[in-house]
Sequence to fold (835 residues):
Amino acid sequence: MTGVGTYFWTFLRRDRWMYVWWTLGLTVLYYSQAVSVDGLYTTRAEFDRAAATMEQNTAFIAMAGPPRALNTIGGQVMWQASAFGAVLVGLMSMFLVGRHTRAEEESGRDELLRAAPVARRASLTAALLNALLANALIGALVALSLAAFPLPAADSLAVGVGLALCGWVFSATALVAAQLTSSTRGMYGLAGTVIGAAYALRAIGDVGNPALSWLSPIGWYQGMHPFSGVRWWPALLLVAGAGAAAAAAYLLFARRDFGAGLWAARPGPARATPRLGTSFGLAWHLQRGSILGWTAGLAVLGIAYGSIGDDVGSVMGDSQTGHDVLVQGGGDLVDGFYAVALVTLALIATGFAISSALQPRGEEDVGRVEPLLATPLARRSFLLAQVATTVLGTVLVLLGAGVGLGAGYSLVTGDAGRLLPFTLGALGYLATLAVPAGAARLLYGVAPRWARLSWLVLLLGFVVLFFGPLFRLPDWVQALSPYHHLALVPAEPFHWAPFLALLVVGAGLSVAGQIGFARRDLR
Amino acid sequence: MSERVIETSGLKKSFGPTQALDGLDLSVTEGEVHGFLGPNGAGKSTTIRILLGLIRKDAGEARLFGGDPWAEAASLHRRLAYVPGDVSLWPNLSGGEVIDMLLRMRDAPVDHPRRAEMLERFELDPTKKGRAYSKGNRQKVALVAALAAPADLLVLDEPTSGLDPLMEQVFAECVAEVRAEGTTILLSSHILSEVERLADRVTIIREGRVVETGSLDEMRHLHRSRVRAEVVGEVPDLSGVAGVHDLSADGSTVTLTVEPEGLPAVLTALTGAGVTALTSTPPTLEELFLDAYRRTDLQPQDSHTQDQGAAR
Fold:
């Protein structure tokens, strides 16, 4: 097929960093499980006890997969990493396929290339090959790293092969989605739904009805049983699934016009609701999808943490380091665990806060702020609406995290008494998140070119929180992190002083940014 | 009485080392369609962005409706509508939603009969999502939003880029109509025929400075006419006549361009030679435009030698 090679090398070049980061990330995901399990349990009895606790936890099984050989390192690695890993390669495959097919068509760039003497299916084929290669690479590195740990080689190979093949299935289904829909956003929505459905089917199946797990490629992957009597025939299901989906994509491709999807684009409303006519209405409209996604995501993560319930002790084993991390100030192990869970959730929620604060920067870059400010809308009002959206969104995302954590805990223990403290504890981090969001706002208002540097605040917080004690970072460095000051609820009682101080700092940064924006040239 | 809707003098703006505006004087009178011409990078959009208070001037004066476009941006914008040169729409909002949203933000009525009329005349489907519109259709969304409710001033930055000739025609009709209602229009454009047809007055800028401004009639007066004549006898030697350029003779036909002050002498010479046919065309805007650049581009001496070369 003429042109496949050219396309393929171009894609490879454009994706080289994606290759690096995804491969590293997924390898670390698997390998770090092996390391942490290896270090966590000092005695066999302790390991067996933890495994028995986990095997009985329905929430864990729904999240991770069928519990097999949990008292071995390999079994733990497969159990803890495989479902999450499969979802991640699914997402990677979706982005890799989407950005070279539907996104290129939508932008019109592909049209430019297709006018050159290349085969009609060249870009499609190259995009698929590119995704297949990326997954194969990830599978290979995961297998190699686990074998080098050392875990049994054949089983390690099965973990990698299954992961790569899972990615192949999701690459091919993403390619189908690219033929059906007519917009990149729609394609990601459809391909993401397929991944979500695959995950949900196996969750329901693993908990109650094993037949359902066999409808999901993730179920096929986990059905290979690495480290607990590995079997290879489920891999054939994955290969067949990928092949069938790819064939379907090629068939659909032949039946559609360039730039169109098999499903016609849905028309929008001809008139705007009155709400859209205000700056806040627009900002909310543009961000509500992201707010909803982050809220749901953190709620799910919160439920995951919460569903450990009171079993923290047995899951953590008796190792002293594990306890030391959780009970930094002394106190109850369970409280310590949930305090760390809350600050971790807050750290993740920072991703929303910063990206929300940077949203008008993206809008300004593509020229969508200019027509708004050419109306009687004052700059102050424009940005204030953005600030309000960020604050409101952050509250909702934190609420999702706190309620999720409390709900997960209540579901497993039957004790609803922690729902409120966890929720309030999560909301307390509003003050912490005000600082990175305020920093983003300040940079946007004063030096929009450098606004992305505000992500460094998150990085700093992450390093201080997880490596501060380990690296014995000096106090003043630790004090720079906004996550370092708030009382660790529920392990410590809530204090108003640091809460208010952080709030004042965050608000100050934000106001400075707003003043800066009112005085600078639009880009 | 006529108010100055836009008035700038000595306007300066630089972006880093680039001097975008270098003492620009622009004056737009109430009720007129003012053509704003210049090559890419001449400073048209920079001027418009200063007038809209989107960027701040470095030096000079800028007044919009007599007010300060930076300090009073929001209140001044109540009286105007703007169509940017490169329209970017929100991918997830339909064209109809964008039109309503911009009208609401302008505090303009969303249900003015003109809204439906404009949608129909521009043949725009308001239910398509922003990402699905072609360049021309994105431009139409911005045009309909600007024209769907009355405004005192329309600021149009290359409003017809991407429109097909039929839609350019519709646009020209709309401009003529709103002008008849008394709306002032600042029309920045590359399409010279469009400006020539619509504009009452024209300002040509280059490298951040005004090269030429005035009504088209005034400007034509200052520029060369193109003369083509057929004579019975010998073609007279016109190369010595002051103000004659681009002279060329082909048998009994002579063509030339001549500055206004040289025209009587040319006519006298042609009459003497027994003229049988004569056409004299005033300069088109395109010629004015190119001429305005040529004069700042080249030294007078170079211009002369070039003309000599052309005459041979």
Observations:
- The longest helix of chain A spans residues 379-413.
- Chain A has two domains: 4-35+83-254, 274-519.
- Chain A touches chain B at residues 106, 182-183, 185, 265, 267-272, 274, 276-279, 282, 285-286, 366-368, 370-379, 519, 521-522 (CB under 8 Å).
- Chain A has a mean pLDDT of 91.
